Amino acid sequence: MKETFEHVAIAGAGLVGCGWAVQFALAGSEVTLYDERAETRQSLPSRLHVMLDDLEKAGLAKNTQDAFSRLRICHTLENALDGADYVQESVFERVEVKAEVARRIGALISSQAIVGSSSSGIPASAFTQDAPNRERFLISHPVNPPHLAPVVELVPAPWTAPDAVPTVRRALAAIGKVPVEVKREIDGFILNRLQGALLNEAWALYEEGYASIQDIDATVAHGLGLRWAFMGPFETIDLNAPGGLADYAERLAPLYHGIALSRTQPRSWSADLIRRVSEERRQALPLDGIPARTRWRDRRLAALVGHLRAQERSDEN
Ligand SMILES: NC(=O)c1ccc[n+]([C@@H]2O[C@H](COP(=O)([O-])OP(=O)(O)OC[C@H]3O[C@@H](n4cnc5c(N)ncnc54)[C@H](O)[C@@H]3O)[C@@H](O)[C@H]2O)c1
């Protein structure tokens, strides 16, 4: 049985599509990219080159010239999909856009190819219902930037063929991703439901005046997030009481239940709240500083990923 995909087509080459392209090319796949915007297609060679270069500088990739030579920009979706055994759809997160693209992709792929959607939270059944070959589609949701963050959520639609999740799981694991399986569809999947719980609480705490934005961010960056870089919430609490998880639950379950009961009527993020938080963020970081700060984040992430990989190797020895 084939372990990896030989030809990966990327449909939608924005932030996420480019990250996927770089990762697959580094792993040895031939990668074709299609984006509907001509300006985006023109900018792709230099963007992809910079991403590969940054990975090499961070010590996370070698032979990036070879990887670059495996990337091909196509001017039509038909050309990009021709001969692809895997398609990573990464267009806008809008159900009507994804539905139209799924219909076009479904009509162009072979009946053996698989299509993973990068959808952040819309389940595949919401946009593949009318697509030809709809049993070849599933969600393959990465974390941004996909070439640095390993986890990928795999979520089948009710009609996804039984071989699709295991095939994608194997192929992604073989290139260093960490696939996790969501057993049935739910809006937001696992990752964004967890992120949503934290974000909703962060907005509410700020709105109710309990802490500043900086201090809420610091609580995660310099507290919770440190452990979360290498262990999840269940393992975290298992190590936070001498008797393990059951001991932790006995001590703190009432506190957490009380917290949950205090938020049974969640409010939406109001326009006024968004304006106030946004104004504070823009004082800390002007809008035109976002690209530079994003590259800074990616450099920090690359260093962290390098550190975590080294730690995993030393744990194994
Ligand atoms: N940005 C994130 O943090 C993140 C993380 C994980 C998943 N995602 C998901 O990945 C997908 C892409 O998000 P992104 O952040 O890369 O957005 P983006 O805006 O950077 O890129 C989307 C690209 O798709 C192209 N596009 C739109 N319609 C198209 C079509 N019909 N055919 C071909 N190309 C088309 C656009 O021109 C654009 O370049 C979304 O589903 C998003 O929810 C985003």
Largest sheet: 8 strands, mixed
Shape: globular
Number of helices: 12
Instruction: Let me know the number of strands.
Output: 8
State the CATH architecture of the largest domain. Answer: 3-Layer(aba) Sandwich
Order of H and E elements = EHEHHEHEHEEEHEHHHHHH
What number of structural domains do the residues give?
2
By CATH, the superfamily of the largest domain comes out as: NAD(P)-binding Rossmann-like Domain
Task: Give the uncertain stretches in residue-range form.
Answer: none
What distance lies between the first and last C-alpha atoms, to the nearest angstrom?
Answer: 30 Å
Q: Using only CA atoms, what is the Rg?
A: 21 Å
Chain-averaged pLDDT: 96
Write the layout of secondary structure elements.
Layout: E1 7-11, H1 15-26, E2 30-34, H2 38-57, H3 64-69, E3 71-73, H4 77-81, E4 86-89, H5 95-108, E5 114-117, E6 137-142, E7 151-156, H6 164-174, E8 178-181, H7 191-207, H8 213-228, H9 233-238, H10 244-261, H11 271-284, H12 290-316
The chain binds nicotinamide-adenine-dinucleotide.
Nicotinamide-adenine-dinucleotide is lined by residues 11-17, 34-37, 40, 90-93, 97, 101, 118-120, 141-142, 144.
Structural summary, described in words:
With 317 residues, the protein is α/β, with parallel strands linked by helices. The chain has 2 domains: 7-181, NAD(P)-binding Rossmann-like Domain (Rossmann fold), CATH 3.40.50; 191-284, N-(1-d-carboxylethyl)-l-norvaline Dehydrogenase, domain 2 (Orthogonal Bundle). It contains 12 helices and 8 strands. The chain has helices at 15-26, 38-57, 64-69, 77-81, 95-108, 164-174, 191-207, 213-228, 233-238, 244-261, 271-284, 290-316, and strands at 7-11, 30-34, 71-73, 86-89, 114-117, 137-142, 151-156, 178-181. Strands 3-2-1-4-5-6-7-8 form an 8-stranded mixed β-sheet, with helices on both faces. Helix 1 links the parallel strand 1 and strand 2. Helix 1 packs across helix 2 (38-57). Residues 11-17, 34-37, 40, 90-93, 97, 101, 118-120, 141-142, 144 line the site of nicotinamide-adenine-dinucleotide (NAD).
